[in-house]
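cron nightly-structures :: item 1 of 1
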Amino acid sequence: MPRVIWIVLDSVGMGEAPDAADFGDEGCSTIGHIMEKYPQLKIPNLRRIGYGNIEGMVGVMPVDEPVGAYGRLRELSAGKDTTIGHWEMAGIHTAQRFPVYPDGFPEDIIDAFVKSTGVPGVLYNGVASGTAIINEYGDEMKASRKPIIYTSADSVFQIACDESVYTPEELYDMCRKARAILTGSHNVARVIARPYVWDGEKYVRTSNRRDFSRMPKEPNLLTMIRDAGQDVYAIGKIEDIFAGSGITEAVHTKDNEDGMDRTIEALDKVKSGLIFTNLVEFDSTWGHRRDVKGYAGGLEAFDKRLGELMEKLGEYRGERSEDFIVITADHGCDPTFKGTDHTREYVPFLAYGGSLRPADLGTGTSFADSGETVRDMLGVPGRLSIGVSRWPEIRKND
C-alpha cells in the first residue's frame, strides 16, 4: 500500500508572487535572500531532488540530473498565513481574507473574553511582535495576572501567559473560550496559546504553544484519505491547523529536529496513507524573528535529516516503490524583509520516490496541486475542488 510523507517547510517561500504588491510584499524572496547572504549553504539532498532546478529559483545551484519532480506553486486564496496555505494544499479555496485587527480587538470581544474566562482583565490588545510584547509586559502580567492579548498582520487572536501564573492547560482553556466567542464576522483563523517563562535574563516562549483553528470545510484531502480507510498521521501543528478534521492520529513537536524524529519514526507505524509534517521553526523561530543565520542553519539541518529520511525509505535499495516524499511550503517569511510578518510568495513543490520519474513541473495552478497529486499517489477516489494532479506526468510506466 502506498505512503506519502508530506513535509511543509513552514514559511520557506521562493520569491514574490505576481500579486505580492497587493499584500505589501514587492521584493520579498525568502530562500533567495537567504542564499544571497549565505551562498555556500549546503543543501545537497534538496538540490539532488531538483530544488535548484525549479523555475524562478534564485541562488540555489541546479543539478544536471535531478532525481525528483520539481516545480513551484502560486497561491490562489486570499491570504498569506499558515491556515489559508495549508487549507489550500488540502483543496480548500479561501476566496475572502479572514478578519484582521490592526487596531486591536473590539471592546465587546475583550469584555466577553474577560467574563468567560474570569481573568482580572487583559494587557495591551494590539499588533505586536510576540517576543517583544512578553518582555514589555511580562512583569506586569505576573503582578496583575492579566493575560497579554495581541495580534499581527495575520488573522490571529494570541494569548500570552507566564507559565508560573497560568499553566499551559489553563491557557488552553482560555483559548477554547476565546474560540467560542470569535464567531461570525470575528471568526479569526486561529486563536493561539503563547506560554512563556523567565529564563533568568528575559522572558522566552516555551514549546507548549497550541493553535485553535476555525473548522475547515469538509470534505477536504484529509477527510478523503481517512474515509478511504487510510491513515492520516499528523506531526507538529497539523492537527491544530485542521482542528482535527480528517486526522486519525497526531503528535505535537517542540522543534524541527523533533518533527523529523517523529516523521522518521512514523514510517514504522503507518502502513498506508499520509504522514503529514509541519516544521514550524523556519517561521516561528527564524522567519518572524528575522534571524537570517538561524534560518540558513535550519535549512542545512533539515537537509541532513532529509537525507536520513531518503535512506530510510530505501530509495537507494528500491525496497518500496510505493513510498513518496513531497516537500512544499505554506507561504513566505523573508527574514531580510521589512517588518516581521509573512510574505506572499511562490512555494516550491518537490516530489520524490521509487516509482516516480524526474520532471520539470513548471508553475502550478494553486497550492492544491500538491494535495491533488498526493491524493492521486495514494489512489484515493474523487478529486479536490481545486488543484491539478501532476501524478500522471511523473508516474513511471512499468
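cron nightly-structures :: done
The chain has a mean pLDDT of 95.
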